[in-house]
């Protein structure tokens, strides 16, 4: 028998020891809670989100004290109702409280607390906290949007997506949490992944048993989705980012299941996993419980299902329209044997496939959402569009996927799989008078792209698309490493990765920058004259450290900057990272 104490026993003992030191009588099961619940009622931290000019959402989870042997872990349905008081102040010491109130939370909402605090001042920084049962939460820092009448203010925010917990430590979130110059963080989806710890696990093998998913199996029911959210909220790096900045978020596919569409997903088997719509319903419920997300007014704008798409105003500078492209999308085009369920890399060029891709009845977003998008942000210099999957065309040469050189493929889960609607949106962008910048995630790499009028060398740029890297999810480097012989030096893998991305850029001349190695975030800075994207990445792998994601202390650093000048509809290199803000919130 192995006499070495298990990781579970060590963690559980540490949690119980911390509780004893704190003088608490509450006992928690660290493993079941999937969080260091010894931190008390507010062990899942605080968060804020969806900042408007006069309102912001604040969030926490209030875990009731133990009663007997029952532990109100996320998703358990246990625990009595608990009354939570909240305060919003202009100062961190709460000498100047401007709003306060109380709310009763219970197992019906998984003991989450979400308050839409209204009546605030535009472009103003606030601090908030919660109280319950004699305990006080950590203090959160937030601010309202720079939507202050005709006054022009600075606008700067972080751009992230794709944070697979088993993929590594969340260096990007920690780096964002350490910044003090952001208005908010825009998260474009795949906030977590639905996979378990078995054959479907992805990420470095070095983190098996160290950084595992909770629940251990794929998320299928309400309990599972709630636990997965709780796991992420308990991560110290993500908790720091949430505590320091408001988030604007939208889900992509993995918050439900891989390559989701309106009636199914690549990673859903009805024969063994039941109804997809039932699964999606509970996934959405958990998302709305655990995220500082404000559902927009359902009656004002026509929509299908639940309206998740919404807009944000930044005064005379511009607007942000956040799309939602999973709930009502038509099933992806499949071409067996390349793909059979939920799309992916498919060869194009045959009449049958091209006819499906060009079918005007196929939609990425419902027509009502498209009409809303086209009517958004008129008369302002900049229209920013938060978008889950790549809009610009991406032609993939066959050899990159070990296929014949005469073959070209596209990813049918991207806008390329919905060509009629893709062309409709591109034509709209070409025809508007303001500058359109599409902000995208999903593809686990960093891009600066001129949105082309057509997928040809003689294209005309109509707008710009900036794509942020993944926080941790496998990218081009990890895929190249998996395809090369075991033991290939990291430097050789880096070279192979750059050859791959160079080939892609050469085949798609509208791609002006593409990095497939670094994980991290993009910083977006908006002025009347330009929008700049600063890319911040984890270190380039070396033989000494072939996977920086496994290093808990790893950090990000600025690597390159790209910009689009007002009126140019093109991207160009910027001279360096952004400097100080032109003004600060009150």
Automatic annotation (TrEMBL):
Annotated stretches, region: Disordered: 563-586
Positions of the PhoD-like phosphatase metallophosphatase domain: 157-535
Annotated coiled-coil segments of the chain: none
Domain Phospholipase D N-terminal: 45-144
InterPro entries linked to this entry: Metallo-depent_PP-like, PhoD-like_MPP, PhoD-like_sf, PhoD_N, Phospholipid_Metab_Enz, TAT_signal
PANTHER family: ALKALINE PHOSPHATASE FAMILY PROTEIN (AFU_ORTHOLOGUE AFUA_5G03860), PHOSPHATASE, PUTATIVE (AFU_ORTHOLOGUE AFUA_6G08710)-RELATED
Protein name: Alkaline phosphatase D
């Amino acid at each position: 028998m192995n006499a070495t104490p298990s990781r579970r026993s060590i963690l559980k003992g540490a949690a119980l020891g911390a509780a004893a030191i704190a003088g608490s009588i509450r006992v928690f099961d660290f493993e079941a809670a999937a969080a260091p619940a010894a931190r008390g009622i507010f062990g899942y931290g605080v968060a804020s989100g969806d900042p408007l000019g006069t309102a912001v959402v604040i969030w926490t989870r209030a875990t009731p004290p133990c009663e007997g042997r029952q532990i109100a872990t996320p998703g358990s349905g246990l625990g009595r109702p608990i009354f939570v008081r909240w305060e919003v102040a202009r100062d961190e010491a709460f000498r100047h409280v401007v709003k306060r109130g109380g709310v009763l939370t219970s197992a019906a909402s998984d003991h989450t607390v979400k308050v839409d605090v209204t009546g605030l001042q535009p472009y103003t920084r606030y601090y908030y906290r919660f109280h319950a049962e004699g305990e006080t939460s950590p203090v959160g820092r937030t601010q309202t949007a720079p939507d202050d009448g005709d006054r022009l203010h600075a606008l700067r925010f972080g751009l992230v997506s794709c944070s697979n917990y088993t993929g590594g430590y969340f260096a990007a979130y920690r780096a964002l949490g350490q910044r003090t110059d952001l208005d908010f963080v825009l998260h474009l989806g795949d906030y977590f992944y639905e996979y378990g710890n078995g054959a479907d696990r992805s990420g470095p093998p070095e983190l098996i048993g160290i950084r595992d998913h909770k629940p251990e199996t794929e998320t299928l029911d309400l309990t599972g989705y709630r636990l997965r959210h709780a796991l992420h909220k308990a991560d110290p790096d993500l908790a720091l980012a949430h505590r320091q900045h408001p988030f604007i978020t939208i889900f992509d596919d993995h918050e439900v299941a891989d390559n989701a569409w309106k009636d199914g997903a690549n990673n859903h088997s009805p024969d063994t996993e039941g109804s997809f719509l039932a699964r999606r319903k509970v996934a959405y419920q958990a998302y709305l419980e655990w995220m500082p997300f404000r559902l927009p007014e359902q009656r004002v704008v026509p929509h299908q299902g639940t309206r998740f798409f919404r807009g944000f105003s930044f005064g005379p500078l511009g607007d942000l329209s956040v799309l939602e492209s999973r709930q009502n999308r038509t099933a992806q085009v499949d071409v067996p044997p390349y793909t059979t369920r939920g799309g992916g890399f498919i060869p194009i060029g045959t009449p049958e496939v091209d006819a499906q891709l060009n079918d005007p009845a196929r939609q990425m977003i419902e027509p009502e959402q498209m009409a809303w998008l086209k009517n958004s942000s008129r008369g302002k210099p900049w229209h920013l569009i938060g978008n889950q999957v790549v809009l610009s065309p991406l032609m993939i040469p066959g050899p990159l996927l070990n296929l014949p050189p005469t073959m070209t493929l596209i990813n049918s889960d991207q806008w390329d799989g919905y060509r009629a609607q893709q062309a409709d949106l591109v034509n709209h962008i070409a025809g508007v008078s303001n500058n359109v910048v599409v902000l995208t995630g999903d593809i686990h790499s960093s891009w600066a792209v001129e949105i082309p009028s057509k997928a040809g060398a003689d294209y005309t740029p109509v707008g710009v698309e900036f794509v942020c890297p993944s926080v941790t999810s496998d990218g081009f480097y990890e895929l190249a490493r998996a395809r090369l012989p075991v033991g290939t030096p990291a430097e050789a893998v880096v070279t192979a990765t750059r050859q791959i991305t160079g080939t892609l850029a050469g085949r798609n001349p509208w791609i002006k920058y593409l990095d497939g190695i670094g994980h991290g975030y993009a910083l977006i800075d908006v002025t009347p004259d330009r929008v700049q994207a600063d890319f911040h990445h984890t270190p380039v792998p070396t033989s000494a450290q072939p996977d920086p994601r496994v290093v808990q202390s790893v950090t990000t650093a600025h690597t390159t900057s790209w910009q689009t000048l007002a009126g140019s509809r093109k991207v160009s290199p910027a001279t360096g990272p952004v400097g100080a803000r032109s003004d600060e919130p009150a």
